[in-house]
Write a structure and sequence with these properties.
The protein is α+β, with helices and mostly antiparallel strands and about 250 residues long. Helix content is about 20%, strand content about 30%. Strands 1, 2, 3, 4, 5, 6, 7, 8, 9, 10, 11, 12 and 13 form a 13-stranded antiparallel beta sheet that branches.
Length: about 250
Amino acid sequence: MPALPTRRTRLAAVLGAAALVVVAMTGCTDGSDGGSAADATPQVTAENGVDALDSSALLEATTKALQAQPAFRVRGNTTEGALDLAFVKGTGAYGTVTTGGNAITVLATGGKVWVKGDAAFYESLVGQGSSTLIGDKWVELPAASVPQVEVFTDGSAFLDNMIDPKATLEVTDVKRLDGDEVVGAQDTDGGGTLWVAAQGEPLPLRFDERGAAGDVGVLRFVDYGVVVPIAAPAPEQIAAVPVPAPTPAPAQAQ
């Protein structure tokens, strides 16, 4: 998996910046180590052999298993906000990202991304009068901005943001978590733990941020194979957001 920027986890950092990304793209402004609740299951080996893999091989196997799935969903929260996103292979993604108390709906398909917030979101983070301008319509992000929100629109990119492959990772023993037998890829440099199924396909089942407690700081991978309908909004559902005029170049001294 490709190396990505350092994280708080990295996904938490992206969540913290999500509102700023949306603001920048709309163009209408005016002016406990590991923390896991997993229970050890001593002297148990993984039915699918993932406990015998090193961390690199485990992450590679997990990525391949996820990419083979027609669809999946991630929901839960980080220290910076909450997620509820459905990813459909070859189609796109749909769901909500909540940060700073503001819920942003994200729709991605056909290489394009649209976002939608409520009136309070636009007024507080975009600018006075912006909610009237946008209303209940979608705002399309410029093509150059799509890579900045890839973590919310591409399932493989999302998984890449869970664990830094350059960190020191340890593969745990088989444990029981949420009723499943799992093996963890634990970031011993202070990051989180990605829990992978120890039976059947080595699919990711859960990610715990460092210091996760209860359901706080926990993201779950669910609804494997459940394909939700995703389609681009109709033209009349997209806000005609004006692009600010370029700033004139300063006059040259004679």
